[in-house]
Amino acid sequence: MINADQTIIWLCILVHSLCEKLWIGMVELAIYAFVAAFIFFRLYSSLGRASSINFQGACATPEKPGDDRIALDAKNDQQDIPLTSVTEEEHFEEVSPGIEVMRARSMDFSLRNFMAGSAAAFEVIMKALNRGDTELLSSLLSDDIYKSFEKEIMRRNSEGHIHEDVVVSIVSQKITAAKVIGDVAAITVKFLTEQINVVRNAAGDVIAGSTSKINVVEDFWTFEKNANSPSRKWYLSATC
To answer: CATH code for 84-239?
Structure first.
């Protein structure tokens, strides 16, 4: 028979074994967590600033209306977001009058839908540029800026380069200008995005950028539409 002393000894051995396994498991988890944190830190320590589209000129707002191409504000939202939530404080006073004029001219204007639509347009246009999809771009851009995009695509093709600009996330999106000049309504949005920017040669080798580096990119895009048009579509008219 097993006496009390033997029972205590066996219990102590069992508890020690369990504690040892638990300790090893905790150490392994700690190591995995440290490795993950280290990789994350290395990735973000390589952050840089760049301009995803730097071949376009100044951010001038065209003063002539054009056809409507990007659906940025759909049916009016009765619970629209406040202008202060999508405008930088330093620009609020100059942005507010323009937005009020747009609302007065179109009961269907919605800041909520405009901001969601412009974010979607940003990613669609970036992807179309990378693919060299001139047909899609021609339906989304004004004539002047389309010529700049087309010229850039031709340059890339002539050099045999493939550009990969992947939008990882849109960090912030703020309105910096809003004006109605004549019949043209124009809104400029500052996008702060995280992107992976890579250039490859015809063989697929990376010749610029890095697939593991996230760049913080700042872009100013201006969208416009005919202020008197019943259409709720906008198109990109300027970038910088």
So the answer is: 3.10.450.240
